[in-house]
Amino acid sequence: MLPLAAIPCALLIGTAARQDLNGTTPGWARGKWVIRLGELSFAFYMVHRIVIVFGHILLGGGSYSTPVAVGVLLLFAAAALLLGWVLMALVERPLMNKFGKRSKASIHSIEPPRTDDQTPIAA
Fold it and tell me: What is the pTM of this model?
């Protein structure tokens, strides 16, 4: 990564981490689809290179015009996302359920910290 690209990335990661710790994470970043993509990211990382290399070989290994290349990349991204989900569902989750450490609180049950001016809502 270029050093100039690392600076904005570091600032973005630091800001996101601070918002998460403060409980001020934007609503869209707490949505189910964002959480699922986060869970899927490692499996996607594991398969994306394989999909790109072997997909290119299966398609003949040639070069493409720009519109066709964009379509091929979108196809490869969708295939990697699907294979990543399969890897996560059939390998990662079962192994984590069997060998992973159990915590008392799951990440989905943790509430953001309250400030002094917030009062709890009675259930």
Answer: 0.64
CB atoms within 10 A of CB 81: 17
> What's the rounded Cα separation, in Å, for the pair 5 and 7?
6
Q: How far is Cα of residue 74 from the mean position of the Cα atoms in its chain?
A: 17
For residue 45, what are its two tokens? 């990382």
CA distance 41 to 35: 10
**Cα Rg of the chain, angstroms:** 20
pLDDT digits (tens, 9 = 90+) for 67-107: 999 999 999 999 999 999 999 999 999 998 999 877 655 55
Residue identified by tokens 């001020």 is 24
Burial class of residue 84, CB neighbours in 10 A (0-12, 13-18, 19+) = buried
